[in-house]
From TrEMBL:
UniProt similarity note: Belongs to the DsrE/TusD family.
Subcellular location: Cytoplasm
Organism: Marinobacter mobilis
Keywords for the protein's UniProt record, in alphabetical order: Cytoplasm, Transferase
Single GO cellular component term: sulfurtransferase complex
BP GO terms, sorted: tRNA wobble position uridine thiolation
Protein name as it appears in the record: tRNA 2-thiouridine synthesizing protein D
Amino acid sequence: MHSQTAFTLVITGAPYSTQAPQTALAFAKAALAQGYSIDRVFLYGDGVHLSSALAAPPSDETNWPKAWAEFLQGNDIPAVACIASALRRGILNNEEQARYQRNASNIIEPFELLGLGEWVESIASTSKTLYFHGDH
């Protein structure tokens, strides 16, 4: 077992326009299978689109937000979407919906909206941080 090694995964590429979420999920599953742990998943920039509960891809395509949510919940891994990135891209939780007087919230559980402080804290307590960027 490699329980002493924990990873923080930072995803900056959006689902459907980059491979970042798919590659990160494949890595996360393989890491857990090898006995490593995932400390947290952090979404930044366009990666926050992975936390949208409103994604509705065709039935023959993977629903990446749903696939990630099920993986995170099934493995009890915390997941954070950068609040500044999320708000710019229309991803809101109930509190931000009320604050900005919008018609709906649309963040999928277990993702939370938090600031960069969470990311810094995670890096400080994690053995390794891996970045999954978009390929533009």
